[in-house]
Design brief:
- The chain has about 375 residues and is of the alpha+beta class.
- It contains 7 helices and 22 strands.
- The strands form 6 sheets. Strands 1-6-7-3-2-10 form a 6-stranded mixed sheet.
- The radius of gyration is 62 Å and the shape is elongated.
Length: about 375
């Protein structure tokens, strides 16, 4: 959409060149007309150009302070056709205007411009903090019977909250100065004084406040690392619990259902050579075991080391006189017929040891070497 403002002389020439005849002269069509009074400074009257395609309508108006009617000097042009008019307003006056197509009058109306008032946005917002409350102030507009609406929310709120006052001096209670808040303001008219056709002002620029100081934005820098730390700890704890539960489940599964050994490792060749025929496998295994046992026996048949029995020299040289079954007489003694007058004394402080058909007398000082 392109808006063009034409001065009075140019507007007159433009209308003479673009005006065309209207439809039925006996029937007055209905136009959609919108009036906005911008803070008692400018009045904008617009109408729908599509209702009269290819037609430029003329706007003639008169304020209560004017002596005579006059045509519009600042037309709003849309798609090469007149779509509105801008008027200067100095105070609350009665505006009478008419819209015509050539000599045909299509629309006529007289209204107080205050009935279509749209105040200007609040400016120069200031904040004064005290404990858990803040007072928002700004410059009041030069006319009365207005409502100043202050909206606010924190970074934890999803919707705006409102507080209104008849002057731009609004105190909001129950705030936390440690939090960062968004503030914005606008001005509305009292319906009882201005009617229902007025418009609220545009919202002021959003202001950020925290700890009584102005902020560029409401990004909580201190909360972000804490959030990351908490999330990391929760994730680590979750993974640890998951690993512990898996270990417990595996251990419980092993206790309840112990692993069965693979018969291929216990019985080699049972499935590979004999296809699971245990009888054939055991015969084959016995033959292999017998040969292995025989080979092992042959390997074990190694002459053992000679048993060496040593006695102390003194004991070996001592004569042993024996008689009786343990001391049989020698051949010389039998031939001579002599009998030793000394009786065969049994070994003293020793033990008799039989080994390989031999009998030994062991004393405390004897030892054997195998």
């Amino acid at each position: 959409m392109r808006t063009v403002f034409l001065p009075c002389a140019a507007a007159a020439l433009f209308l003479l060149g673009r005006a065309t005849a209207s439809g039925d002269p006996g029937q007055e069509p209905v136009l959609q007309v919108r009036i906005i009074n911008f803070n008692f400074e400018t009045v904008r009257v617009t109408w729908s150009p599509r209702r009269y395609s290819g037609t430029n309508l003329t706007f003639v108006y008169k304020l209560s302070s004017d002596e005579a009617s006059r045509p519009c000097c600042n037309y709003i042009v849309h798609e090469s056709h007149t779509a509105g008019c801008l008027l200067e307003a100095r105070k609350d006056e009665i505006l009478c205007f008419s819209l015509g197509n050539g000599t045909d009058i299509l629309f006529r109306k007289c209204e107080w411009i205050s009935a279509y008032l749209k105040p200007s946005s609040p400016e120069d917002l200031s904040f004064r903090w005290h404990e858990d409350a803040v007072t928002v102030t700004c410059s009041d507009l030069p006319y009365k019977r207005l409502l100043y609406e202050i909206q606010y929310k924190s970074i934890f709120d999803t919707e705006w909250q409102s507080k209104e006052g008849e002057t731009c001096n609004v105190t909001i209670q129950g705030l936390d100065s440690e939090k960062c808040y968004f503030f914005r303001a606008r001005v509305k008219t009292l319906e009882s004084s201005y009617g229902s056709d007025t418009y609220p002002s545009d919202w002021s620029k959003v202001t950020h406040q925290q700890r009584g100081e102005l902020r560029d934005s409401c990004r909580e820098k201190k909360l972000f690392p804490k959030f990351i730390l908490i999330c990391g700890m929760i994730a680590l704890l979750t993974v640890s619990l998951l690993l512990l539960s898996l270990w417990k489940v595996r251990r419980l599964h092993k206790c309840l259902m112990p692993s069965v050994p693979d018969p291929k490792l216990t019985f080699p060749g049972l499935f590979e050579l004999h296809r699971g025929n245990f009888q054939e496998w055991i015969k084959d295994t016995q033959n292999v075991s017998h040969v292995a046992k025989t080979e092992a026996t042959e390997q074990e048949c190694v002459p053992e080391e000679t048993l060496v029995v040593q006695l102390q020299k003194a004991e070996a040289e001592m004569p042993i006189v024996t008689t009786g079954p343990l001391c049989p007489p020698t051949e010389g003694e039998e031939a001579s017929g002599d009998a030793s007058p000394v009786a065969c004394q049994p070994p003293q402080r020793g033990e008799v040891v039989s080994l390989g058909g031999f009998t030994f007398v062991m004393t405390d000082n004897s030892y054997m070497l195998l």
